[in-house]
Amino acid sequence: MTPGRDELAESGYTWEIADAPILHAALNLADLEHALELRAIGAVTEAEGATLLKGLLALHSLPAEAVGYDPSLGELVTSREAYLDGEIGDAAGFLRAGRTRREAVRTAFRIVVRRQVLDLIVDACALTTAICERSEEHARTLMPDYTYLQPAQASTFGHYLLSFADPVLRDAKRLMSEFANVNESPAGSGAANGSPLIKDRAGAADALGFARPGEHIRDAMWQTDPFAHVLFHATSLVLTEDRLAEDLEIFASREFDFVALADNVVRPSVLMPQKRNPYALTVIRGSAGVMIGRLTGQMALAKSPSARSDTFIYAYGEIPRALDLAGRVTRLMR
Questions:
Q1: C-alpha angle with apex 144: 172 to 242, nearest 5 degrees?
Q2: At 2, phi and psi to the nearest 5?
Q3: Where are the alpha helices (DSSP H) in 144-222?
Q4: Are 216 and 184 in contact (CB under 8 A)?
Q5: What is the pLDDT of residues 3-33, one digit of tens each?
Q6: Contacts with 268 (C-beta within 8 Å, 6 or more apart), sequence order
Q7: Whether residue 46 has pLDDT greater than 70
Q8: What is the pLDDT of residue 296?
Q9: C-alpha closest to that of 104 among 83, 81, 72
């Protein structure tokens, strides 16, 4: 049995191309930096560099959908280069000088993830603030605390609610700590042992807004642990939100009747319109399960020999989608 290119495109390249909307803008930045570096070191003439930069700037102004990423042409980089070749001709090929395809995508991936990590930290801090404000409002609202769903010590709703603030803050701190590792540049790493052309790795890192280049070039290209840690902390954050959501779902039931959910976070039953189904809480609970699944999937992919592309091909879209989900759920929890 010998599979053809059509089968490869349908099973492999189609998966990678699906990540184009996530990585497109960051790939533009990585390509622009590389083109400027090529011109600076004299790897291209002024005319060639100008043509390449003009094409890349035009590409940067377009959304991914307008570029027409096509799995029949190959994966992300090959597909976008085919588009660029149609716009500026042979000058598009210079993007391959001194840089592998994986370096381009790894760089774009880090640009996307570092932004998402910072956004999630901001969302977590905003949630903590909201929890503290609501806790203060209910500092004297009496309620029994529960263990095993059995009434335990007397408490207040404010005291109960405030117990979720510190776990959220701890995950925000962990994300901030891991951000330092995500914010290291792989530019100039080549396949694993450096680029024959790009020697100023610190300059490339600075141009792309990274704190520093990855210290060891092979590790910079193939490391997976910072992304696993980020995904773990994001999942932990959503699990804290899940615990609160599950409690609130119980407290909002007719049997408990401790809390009333706002109209904009519930929806009625079609058959029984008097019901106020806690739809927002269901979304949070379900999202926690999705986060656990995505984290488990990434852990399974990481179990491989070093320097294997499958650990990233199936992470380029999945990790950004998971972090996006964590951010949306955290904002919903506010």
A1: 30
A2: -120, 105
A3: 157-162, 165-182, 201-207, 217-222
A4: no
A5: 556 888 888 899 899 999 999 999 999 999 9
A6: 274, 275, 276, 277
A7: yes
A8: 96
A9: 81
Domain 109-189+216-333 class in CATH: mainly alpha
Domain boundaries, the chain: 5-97, 109-189+216-333
Q: Which amino acid is at 54?
A: K
292's tokens: 């656990």
CB neighbourhood size of 181 (10 A):
17
Distance of alpha carbon 87 from alpha carbon 61, whole angstroms: 14
Q: 213: helix, coil or strand?
A: strand
Do 92 and 81 form a contact (C-beta atoms < 8 A)?
yes
From 84, 86, 90, select the one nearest 27 (Cα to Cα): 84
Map 85-143 to HEC letters.
Answer: HHHHHHHHHHHHCCCCHHHHHHHHHHHHHHHHHHHHHHHHHHHHHHHHHHHHHCCCCEE
Compute the radius of gyration of the chain from its Cα atoms: 24
The class level of CATH for 5-97 reads mainly alpha
For residue 146, give the 3-state DSSP assignment.
Answer: strand
